[in-house]
Each structure stands twice: as C-alpha cells, then as structure tokens.
Amino acid sequence: MPRMPSLLSNRLAKRVMRPAFALVEQRMERATSALQTDLDALHHAVADLRRQSYGLGLLLDRAGRDGHRMPTATQVDTLVREVRAVTGDDGERARHDVTVAYRHLVALEALGAGGLAGTVTDVCGRLTTVPLLAPPNGEVLEIGTAHGLFAAALRRMLRRGGVEARLTIVDPLDGSPTREDEVRGNLILSGGAGPADAARIERGGFDDPDVRGRIADRRYGVIVVNGSHDLAAVRDLAAPGAVVVLGDQPRPAGLTGLGRVADSVYCRAA
C-alpha cells in the first residue's frame, strides 16, 4: 500500500495552517514569558527571605544562650493553654501577655550581658504566669539568678500589672557564670524610678544560715527558685498567698501546687 504524504509536507496545507501555527507560537511565548516573570519574582522573594532569615538568626539563634528564641505557633498555643489552666484566665490576656513576655525576652537579651536561663517557653511562661496569679505584695525573691536578666524582665512584667516590685536576689556571684557588676548593670534594664532598695543582692548560697537570716526581714509575694534548695526554708519566707515557682522536686506542706507551665511548677503559699 503506498505511503500517504505527511500533511505538514504539503505546501497548501502549511499555507493554510500557518496562521494557526503563528497563534500557537505567540501563546507559547506569552506563557513562557509569564512563567519566566514568575520564576524571577520567586527567585527575588527567596533571596529576600534568606537575607531576612540570616538577620533574624543573628538576633534569635542559640549563640550565647541556652537555646534559640524562635518559638513555633504550636509551642505558643500550648504555652497559652498551660498558662490559662494554671491561672484560670479565660480571656485573651494570657495570649497577649505571652506575646509581651516574648518581646521582653528578646529585647533584654539583645541589650543585656548574658542571657536568660531556660527555654523560650519556660521563660515566657514564668514572665506571664506570675503576674496573672496576682501576688499578694511586690516583694520578689529570686534564688539563683545567673545574669539578673530574668529578674529585670519579671519586674517589668509586674509593673505592667500595677505592681512595683522590690527585688531580692540570692546568688554566690563568684564569677561563674557572672559577676555582681554585670547583674547590677542588667537590673538597670528593669526600668522604673523605684526606691533605692528596689533591688538588693545578697551574695552567698541559700543554704547559708547567715544569708537566710539577712533576707528574712520581709515576707515575699513572689519566690523564684532556680536549682535545688531547701523548700521548707523557702516556704518560711513566703507571704500568705505568695506565688512560688519551682522545678520538679517534692514540695513541703504549706505549698499548694497549682500546676505546671512549660518546665516550671507553680505553687501558692498557705
């Protein structure tokens, strides 16, 4: 059977179909041009994101502290639920205060010497939960301070709730990890124009009876315990209704557990 010639090899057919071919080519050129435009825009967007990510990483990565400061949406949602469960907040204040606490964390670590010990969720959880639990007075005792930045941040958060905190810090401050002058410099970041004794530092270990005797001149509305310490002695320094923040350790009588937020346990003193 003789082979039929290709339609595209027929001069008449090619002449008739030339406009159709031209139209197809034009449409393909437009589509290719549009695709190239989109690819160029995507390339520039990715380059911008890389630049932004690098700058953000310099501010929020783990260099010089316990961990990075970039929480996920899931972590924040979980933190808000835990704060609400411990404090009884049924509105949007918990989420709002978590956001403000995060901004304090980033700002103080950027301005201060050293960092705040702990994960971003634990630090923000403490800064949010303590004020929401409405301490009975503004006397704040921090046992073990590292660099003093948490105390500065907590004072700022309490002030937002109308409480002007007077800080007492107990720490050996023997140069590991920090020195007293660094702590005092960081405490300036707490702001405010409080009295001269708005922040006092008692150098030494909490297990030293002399240290405990010097700080026993008042009862504290907030006690933050970093590390393992004698919780019976902690309880004896707490004002009625005080908020006590602990790690995972057995509690003596007189400290009622309220629940856990991130890595910290919250108690109310009798």
From TrEMBL:
InterPro entries tied to this protein: SAM-dependent_MTases_sf
Matching Gene3D superfamilies: Vaccinia Virus protein VP39 (3.40.50.150)
A Pfam match: Methyltransf_24
Domain of life: Bacteria
Protein name per UniProt: Class I SAM-dependent methyltransferase
Organism whose genome encodes this protein: Streptomyces lavendofoliae
Lineage of source species: Bacteria, Bacillati, Actinomycetota, Actinomycetes, Kitasatosporales
